[in-house]
Amino acid sequence: MARQLIGKQIKLSLPECKGAIEYYEGVLRFTQLKEFLVSKEQDIILDDLEVENTFLGVAVDLIGTIETFKFVVYFTHPERNVPDNLFNPIDSKCGVIRISLDSLQTQFKTAKSEGKTYHEVLTNFLTNDRKSKMWIYHPRFEKTASLAIENLQKGASNLNYTISYGKNKNNLNYLTQKPYNYESVNLSRSHNFNSKVNQPTKLVNFECVMCKLQWEGYEAGGNQCPKCKNYLYSKEIGTVAT
Predict the structure, then answer these.
(1) pLDDT per position as a tens digit, 202-234
(2) Which strands make up the sheet holding 234-239, listed edge to edge?
(3) Contact 234, 206 (CB under 8 A)
(4) Cβ contact 205:174 at 8 Å
């Protein structure tokens, strides 16, 4: 169902991406907060869209491209959280966005009574709803953080700090801690990138949050509910015993 609804290209409205530095230095022992802007709100178009594929070994919902950059979308709901690996991808030429589906469930339920198709509801949600989206990884985050730290280090002594994506109510922060007297900022990464992992995935048990049906399927690509014909509200509930 998702493949028919989304197609090979999609427009996404993205929120701004901010970073935060919590720090103290010298004789001061109270924590201070310094925010820095990584990117403003923007609209992007993802091409060559792939639905329900793997990214660096992690099953994700959407993978698209923007010029030479890979862009990953991961859907969440109260019983489906972002995998840890997506907070710290091994390749910096990618972007990762989390989209919360909490409000979409209600919109799907009222679609028919409002004379809307699922395609219209989903397209409008992905394109226009910025509040549901949050940056998990931005390709310019580390460079911007480096410059912000360099500015803090000017004239500072005994600087101790923690870098994170901007604070949010879901507490989904990517943290990088540095020791005292950190004189050279180096947040570079190694580059070993392959968006498709050509190896068998394991069998797991899934459950549909909407209809409560349970079934077995492969970790990557086997999460479509046989009853609802939808994967948006599926969750893993364990590994199939062998």
Answers:
(1) 778 888 877 888 888 877 667 778 887 766 667
(2) 214-218, 203-208, 234-239
(3) yes
(4) no
